[in-house]
Write a structure and sequence with these properties.
684 residues; alpha/beta; Glutamine Phosphoribosylpyrophosphate, subunit 1, domain 1; Rossmann fold; 15-stranded mixed sheet; 19 helices; 27 strands; EC 2.6.1.16
């Protein structure tokens, strides 16, 4: 959802223009997450803070800053803290006053940028209003800023009040999921960040090599506000001991020139540094005088006493558009390479063996489980639907597929001998994370399937598979879907390797996995044909039905999702077996229908559905296999290469991805950032 970015330089001289460009470029790297407004805060000239906020794209924010003729962009700072934010509205409509940073008062004493939802903000707001605080926005974020000021004003006489202690006291009062960064005129050149349930990382850039590749976690001695105290009472804040952060000291023991980059996503920091530290839930990060300190209120059993500084393997060029007009288009055409990357080092085509190292230690446990539960949202959910049948066939383990939100609403019974698989491209999907924690509490073995190393799901599951699709910027998932699909196929193959009766079936699938990149390249050659189909046949239509059966049911669901989310055209994926149970009433000569008919065991049954459609004067468009002349000569058709049934959906989904893309382009909408949607759904 929202995107957070902050930049701090210490003993590294930078002019204000450079700082502004760094902040706005960081926001542009986060645009794919979805947003409706943006803003930033920088230091003024007299220990004050300047705020700029604007509705619309980051370019509009840049223009607003340029129009400030009083702003001296040439002024240099040896040390400076700046923060920026892209907002996707959850409380309050998109507007300048609801944009972040949100402030505590007209003097900008405390500023906050925030990603997430504060579920008890109304309670906090009511208490603060009774104490005379006036609110300027409709956001939950403003409550954080004003609560910070309230506690600060209540504790001015406390000489032990540090910026970290103050934010700890605030965080103790907050309920919900959030990542926040706080900046203050009372603590110049300092910044505090906190995370609970929303992703936040810190990039580190130095001229000299860091002394150690970790940061010590510092534990407090007590609660921020004792439970016996009422909400927002002026109680003592926790006493915390400050220690030297060993990683950031030079050889003589003095702080060295350093730059810090805080962000919701590694794509925002990769152009500056590859050295990053991921914050854990309930971490409080304090940056001051070139040092980073990680604080927690108390130590818990099994908790690590350090936070590792990791090296990103992402390249900036990988997240740029290159020769393509849109990220989505680029990512569709990257699929011949992305599927190879997903299989690289895992599939031995000579020995017909699959090895997923992340599952190795848990294979025996998974094989003897009583059922496998897939839990996901959106496109990730469809990848589970697509592979459910092959899982059951190869492993003979019952499989259920759950939408994470519904799974939680029902409080689905989970047992210790269940295996729960959580699928999320970002690894930060809020509903999926909550479902994961629900299952962990009940003792189930939890497996993560993600595209993001260091994400919450990858850290909190017992084991997992990294799909290795590479960065996916477009909000509509394309290559991540096919890589999730393949990852699940590989998982099913490895789990069944002890079943001799399935050897022939496994070998056939592995042989076709080898041919898959070539087949995808052939499908991508249909781009011009699909562009014509979008322009000449479907562009002016208001609705579209997509139907199939068996392995193609998931393709129908995913294709319909792509069309509706990107082109804003109503589209519905239908199981062909359900046609007579309602959807057939929609069929006439004016209703466009796409039918997926590939040469598998379900072909005769889908053929029956085709006859039902044509009998009602329907004019179906057929996605079929090459060489199926009976269909190609009679109907408008899209012919794709034939492969083994459980992999056919990887080839039939690509025409629908291309079709959705071209429909969106012809409608003149923002392909990469569709309205009201976000790439990473980090709130419920």
């Amino acid at each position: 959802m929202c995107g957070i970015f902050a930049y701090l330089n210490y003993l590294v001289e930078k002019d204000r223009g450079y700082i502004i460009d760094t902040l706005t470029n960081g926001l542009k790297r986060l645009e794919y997450r979805g947003y409706d407004s943006s803003g930033l805060a920088i230091d003024g000239d007299n220990n004050d803070i300047l705020i700029y906020r604007q509705v619309g794209k980051v370019k509009a924010l840049e223009q607003l800053i340029k129009e400030d003729t009083k702003l001296d962009v040439s002024k240099t700072f040896l040390s400076h803290t700046g923060m920026a934010h892209t907002r996707w509205a959850t409380h309050g409509q998109p507007s300048q006053r609801n944009s972040h940073p949100q402030r505590s008062d007209p003097n900008n004493e405390f500023l906050v940028v925030h990603n997430g939802i504060i579920t008890n903000f109304k309670e906090i707001k009511t208490v603060l209003e009774k104490k005379g605080y006036q609110f300027e926005s409709d956001t939950d974020t403003e409550c954080i800023a004003k609560l910070t000021k309230y506690i600060y004003d209540s504790q001015k006489s406390n000489k032990q009040l540090t910026f970290t202690n103050l934010v700890k006291a605030v965080v103790k009062e907050l309920e919900g999921a959030f990542a926040v960064i706080v900046k203050s005129t009372h603590f110049p050149n300092e910044m505090v960040a906190a995370r609970r349930g929303s992703p936040l990382l810190i990039g580190v850039k130095t001229e000299k090599k860091l002394k150690v590749d970790f940061v010590d976690v510092e534990f407090g001695n007590g609660e921020a506000i004792p439970d016996s105290e009422s909400k927002m009472s002026a109680s003592d804040v926790p006493k915390m001991h400050r220690s030297q952060s060993r990683a950031f000291l030079s050889e003589d023991g003095m702080p060295q020139p350093i730059e810090f980059f805080l962000a919701s996503d590694p794509s925002a920091v990769i152009e500056h540094t590859k050295r990053v530290l991921y914050l854990e839930d309930d971490d409080i990060a304090h940056i001051c005088e070139g040092e980073l300190h990680i604080h927690r209120l108390r130590r818990e059993d099994g908790m690590s006493s350090v936070r590792l500084i990791q090296t990103l393997e992402l390249e900036l060029a990988e997240i740029m558009k290159g020769q393509y007009d849109h990220f989505m288009q680029k990512e569709i055409f990257e699929q011949p390479e992305s599927v190879v990357n997903t299989m690289r080092g895992r599939v031995n085509f000579d020995t017909h063996k699959v090895t997923l190292g992340g599952l190795k230690a848990y294979l025996a446990t998974i094989r003897r489980c009583r059922r496998i539960v897939f839990c996901a949202c959106g496109t990730s959910y469809h990848s589970a639907i697509a592979t459910r049948a092959i899982f059951e066939e190869l492993t003979e383990i019952p499989v259920s597929v759950e939408l994470a939100s519904d799974f939680l609403d029902r409080r689905t019974p989970i047992f210790r001998d269940d295996v729960c698989v959580f699928i999320s491209q970002s690894g930060e999907t809020a509903d999926t994370i909550l479902a994961l924690r629900y299952c962990l509490e009940r003792g189930a073995l939890c497996v993560g399937i993600t595209n993001t190393v260091g994400s919450t799901i990858s850290r909190e599951t017992h084991c997992g598979v990294h799909i290795n699709a590479g960065p996916e910027v477009g909000v509509a998932s394309t290559k991540a879907y096919t890589s999730q699909y393949i990852s699940l196929i590989m998982m099913a193959i490895q789990l069944s390797e002890d079943r001799i009766s399935m050897t022939e079936r496994r070998n056939a699938i592995i042989d076709e996995l080898h041919e898959l990149p070539r087949h995808i390249k052939e499908v991508l050659k249909l781009d011009a044909q699909l562009q014509s189909l979008a322009k000449d046949v479907l562009f002016k239509e208001k609705s579209l039905l997509i139907m199939g059966r068996g392995y193609q049911h998931a393709t129908c669901l995913e294709g319909a999702l792509k069309i509706k989310e990107i082109s804003y055209m109503h589209s519905e994926g239908i199981l062909a077996g359900e046609l007579k149970h309602g959807p057939l009433a929609l069929i006439d000569e004016n209703m466009p229908v796409i039918i997926i008919m590939t040469k598998d065991s379900y072909y005769p049954k889908v053929q029956s559905a085709l006859q039902q459609v044509t009998a009602r004067k329907g004019q179906p468009i057929i996605i079929c296999n090459e060489g199926d002349n009976n269909l190609v000569t009679k109907y408008r058709s899209i012919a794709v290469p034939q492969t083994v049934d459980c992999l056919q959906g990887l080839l039939t989904i690509i025409p629908l991805q291309l079709l959705s893309y071209h429909l969106a382009v012809f409608h003149g909408v923002d392909v990469d950032f569709p309205r009201n949607l976000a790439k990473s759904v980090t709130v419920e």
